[in-house]
Specification:
Number of helices of chain B: 4
Radius of gyration of chain B: 21 Å
Strand order of the largest sheet of chain A: 3-2-4-5-7-6
Order of helices and strands of chain B: EHEEHEEHEEHEE
Helix content of chain A: 25-40%
Mean pLDDT of chain A: 94
Distance between the termini of chain B: 51 Å
Number of strands of chain A: 20
Number of helices of chain A: 24
Oligomer: heterodimer
Shape of chain A: globular
Largest interface: A-B, 29 and 25 residues
Strand content of chain B: 35-45%
Number of strands of chain B: 9
Structural class of chain B: alpha+beta
Shape of chain B: globular
Low-confidence stretches of chain B: none
Chain lengths: 587, 182
Amino acid sequence: MPKLYSGAEIVFKCLEDQKVEHIFGYPGGAVLPIYDELKNHPSIKHILVRHEQGAGHAAEGYARSTGKPGVVLVTSGPGATNVVTALTDAYMDSVPLVCISGQVPTHLIGTDAFQECDTTGITRPCTKHNWLVKNINDLPRIMHEAFEVATTGRPGPVLVDIPKDIQFAKTKYFKPSKKKSNLKIKNRFKQKDIDQLIELMSKAKKPIFYTGGGVINSGPKASELLRELVSLTGFPITSTLQGLGAYPGDDNQFLGMLGMHGTYEANNAMHDCDLLINIGARFDDRITGKIDEFSPKSKKVHIDIDPSSINKIVKVDLSIVGDVVDVISSTTKTLKKKNLNLVKSNKQKISNWWQQIQKWRKKQSLSYIGSDKIIKPQYAVERLYELTKKQDTFITTEVGQHQMWAAQHYKFNKPNRWMTSGGLGTMGYGLPAAIGVQVAHPKKLVVDIAGEASILMNMQEISTAVQYNLPIKVFILNNQYMGMVRQWQELLHEKNYSESYSKALPDFVKLAEAYGCVGICAKEPNELDEKIEEMINTDRPVIFDCHVDQDENCFPMIPSGKPHNQMLLGPNDQEANKISGKGKALV
Amino acid sequence: MTKSKSAYSTPTKLGKIDTHIIVVWVDNEASVLSRVVGLFSGRGYNIESLAVAEVDHKKNLSRITIVTTGTPQVIEQIVLQLKKLVPVHNVANFKRDDKNVIFREMALLKIVANPIKIKKALNTCKNFNPVVLDQTKKSVVIQITALRREIDNMIKNLKPLGLVSASRTGAVAMTRGAEILN
């Protein structure tokens, strides 16, 4: 007779077999049996958050910085509904999460019992799959399947809803099966697809790589292979917000981020290219701008692990469905085998293209008007980058202007170092995500570049950082406005700053002290470096209140409904254009 | 052109809208139907008709037949999304005018009228395999099988003959010849 285990024990046995080391959660009535079992499993550390949304984002930060799935444990009802934002966020940005939620006992389901909600119903559209465990005998299989679904193909969140009586019930446990299931078939491309890609590459005069989060999700090997491919071909490369770090941000072939707040050179190159190679990106609407006029002259290639991404937004000429690692390594192998020395044969062909790109680069679209009286937010990010680039730094962000400035001015050299909410755009993401990153990398420097509005959305999680001695740094670019909202209101709603100013902000230094961490405030450019150094050298959680220019806008930008080649440039350029009178047409 | 005040782009030209019949083989389990239907409702698309029943008890398989309308891009997206669902085994997609596929719907029609009208009603139905399932002096329940628009017509024609209630299944589909879908 094999040993029988309770549902709660099975949850942990499964987590152990899946090599889970950390879970993020918050207890409550319907998960108490699982929490009771926690003490018997010393290899699994539980991080107690202050709000379930924080648990979800922390698990996301953990997952994105390690490549391993993040695990969340919440109770029924409000516990589950609070985690919905994080699940949706993970779904949009393809982050592997396994969320285990308690549920009221089976016989009470559907009776409006205390802390009951239809968790699987609510989370169905924001998970890859979810399960309501109604029979204890299904639990081991479902738990293993949950990890498999979350981590295979295009990763994403899953949820396992376990009623309280199932947590007490007993059954046999079995380990995850080794055999490959259907889910693991990820590559559906043939050699002829690769040959076709190489054919297109050898013909192209104005090629560009457009890479996204899929490269990061494919693992560190994908980034290495991407670097090799880019250097082998000599093609320019641009990246989406989520793809930053897959290719070194300070490399000469890198044109910077593209899209709404991307660089002038990246967006113009996307518009004028004759071959666009999308690797692991999804033609998001912040990237494409006006879809009818998106890259009108190019042949388009789309490499993605998810067949449903192909032709979803933009019709492509060649689709290659597969894992980025495998597609790039096939491509490089074939390139080398055919001895098509693209670098030599193409260098001539694409040299005009590079000349054109250099012309665009001369616009210096990320430049801004500096000041010695007031801290410019871009300057703050630049200084943060300069003072932290020597060490392996992990950056998370909230959502808004500060996020775009971070993406523009902080240069990433390695994958998994940049955690930001791109798809869903969740304010309040960065602080809990930083906690998750720091849990996974206790010795590394983790900075949440934040705005003062976003940070208040999940401020409570600083208490979690203090409890577990997680020395995260919250670097707030404080302009007292919801900056991105204010910017849109300035540009599109005749400066009617409706409800975008926060009149009663806390004193962040005192707030830090109240939470038991360190508060630092910088108001002038000349004290910034010293204060940033102080922050880096503090081995405790820090809230850094950086007072920045309230009127600064994030440029360049593609105004809504405009194509890539009609960018709105910053004040330097607008000033120059005012004189010649050309600029008006752009606004 | 007026300046757009939106942070989003304005909609551009739409493709041609066609009627499609989508057949989905799924594990017969709780919530599977809402997963499938959710892909339509989540995109704001209406389902014209839906037929679902278990077809293989041993393998626990159900077959869902969905009739819907959409642009080619939307239909392709729905089919690809359906294939990604964990309990979905296979998906087939046909245009309504596909000559290789047979589509049928069944309807139960209740007519309350005098015997002359009932006789006329039965006669009207004669091309659509009518079966009388119940008959009294004042009423009849007729089962017919036909295409959707034929049933639409029948309902229109039977109204003056005393049709009081109509109950219809969604369309089900099968390929012609020896080929099978799955």
